[in-house]
Amino acid sequence: MSGGVMTQDGALRLRMVRTFSAAPGVVFQALTDPVELAKWWGPDGFGIPRVESDLRPGGVYRIEMQPPEGDSFFLTGEFLEVEPPALLSYTFCWEDPDPDDRETIVILELHDDGTGSTRFVFVQGGFATAGRLALHDEGWSQGFDKLEGLLRA
Predict the structure, then answer these.
(1) Which of 40, 108, 117, 127 could form a disulfide bond with 147, CB atoms 3.0-4.6 angstroms apart?
(2) Residue 70: which of 88, 103, 47 has the closest Cα?
(3) Are 124 and 140 in contact (CB under 8 A)?
(4) Is the pTM of this model over 0.85?
């Protein structure tokens, strides 16, 4: 389940809730280990040639994304909260952003559902425009679909 919402403060935020068929520790590793992250990150057809990550509050990350056609581009940010296996938050900023882009905050919550699966809550915001929110909704949805497939394998 996903969707964009406008909060009381007028910010545009993307929220998704999923259940992954793996324990929170396994999901957290897939979200944070550079080798695992490169297997599922990004929209369909995109490759991830390189992930650099210093997984600690104040640490930074940089992800190279290779679209099906064209030059690679990068996103970067800083980890704000790292509490394995329950919580991860970080800033998200495109290098050389589109004029409608601005830095957003990503919050990932992982809850043990008691059956060996993880209830996953994702929030990202605040977006400058509904169009940029929709673009991220599509990209995250496709990436999380790939992650779900990897966790089931």
Answers:
(1) 40
(2) 47
(3) yes
(4) yes
